[in-house]
Amino acid sequence: MRSWRCSSDHKIRSVQLIFPLRSAFIALPLEGEVRDHFRELQERLQEYEEILSFQYPASPHLTLQFWPSMMEIEYHQALKQAEAVAGKAEPFSLKIEGVETFGDRGRDRVLFLSVPFSEPLARLKKLCPWPSEKQFHPHITLARIRHPERFTRVKKRVMKMLSDALFDMNVDRLRLYAEVDGRKQTVLQDFQFH
Q: What is the CATH number of the domain that holds 73?
């Protein structure tokens, strides 16, 4: 294991990295008013906190690429590649339209904000050089569902509570996150669009 001090023009803060990094990902962060709106939606769900595990309210995001484990060489490649992608991308607006769930036949596992097809997002994803075994399904996780059976009983009420989750999200950067010192979703670096 080697440590690496993160230093770049785009860094958020200096952190001590120990490789391999765990749970690293590049995403589109929700910022400002949109992040506040995200938090407000989660606050509506507080009465269901026994059956839901909420996404960290400080770092809501739309994941473009996830690495369960990232070696130091992959980290440096990802930095260069993210810089290149951001250099070719232009800021755009994304629509958030409602709430949906992922799961298998009545066993919902994730409650998320739905992101309908967007030409600018499709172009951005096409610029990304990282292969993925899963088909890209853009979404913003609100909460993971810890108790699917109990959630089934309140699902209609929850969906109705969140039916007005319709807003725009401005996208102007990529952000690299990873688990650092046991803290998941630690912000490592931003890559501003040009």
A: 3.90.1140.10
From residue 12, alpha-carbon distances to 40, 94, 164 in Å are 25, 24, 33
pLDDT in tens, 22-56: 999 999 999 999 999 999 999 999 999 999 999 99
pTM of the model: 0.91
**CA–CA separation, 31 and 60 (whole Å):** 8
Q: Please give the tally of structural domains in the chain.
A: 1
* Range(s) of the domain holding residue 61: 3-192
